[in-house]
């Protein structure tokens, strides 16, 4: 989630992307944030996919399938 206590999700993604083990690991966000600006911030940080809550299971599966290729 993007809105977490102590460290927001965008910062977490940036931190993970600095670690070799997570450089290419797919990272999906599941959040209530739906603004274009926030989505772009997530993409720039290294998020692979962005799912807005509430979501339906089909949307989640479609996003996971897209990310995993």
Outline the fold blueprint.
Elements: H1 9-17, E1 28-31, H2 36-45, E2 49-52, H3 57-68
Parallel strand pairs: 1-2
Low-confidence stretches: none
* Alpha carbon gyration radius: 12 Å
- Beta fraction: 5-15%
Q: Level of helix content?
A: 40-55%
Q: Quote the average pLDDT.
A: 92
CATH topology type:
Rossmann fold
Number of helices: 3
Shape call: globular
> Order of strands side by side in the largest beta sheet?
1-2
Q: Give helix and strand order, one letter per element, not per position.
A: HEHEH
Number of domains: 1
> What kind of sheet is the major sheet?
2 strands, parallel
The level-1 CATH class: Alpha Beta
Name the CATH superfamily assignment. Answer: Response regulator
Q: How many angstroms does the end-to-end distance come to?
A: 23 Å
Architecture (CATH level 2) name: 3-Layer(aba) Sandwich
Number of strands: 2
Protein structure class: alpha+beta
Describe this structure in words.
- It is a single chain.
- The protein has three helices and two strands, in the order αβαβα.
- With 69 residues, the chain is an alpha+beta fold.
- The chain has a single domain (9-68), classed as 3-Layer(aba) Sandwich (Rossmann fold).
- It has a two-stranded parallel ribbon.
- Helix 2 (36-45) links the parallel strand 1 (28-31) and strand 2 (49-52).
- The longest helix is centred in the C-terminal third of the chain and has 12 residues, at 57-68.
- The two termini are 23 Å apart.
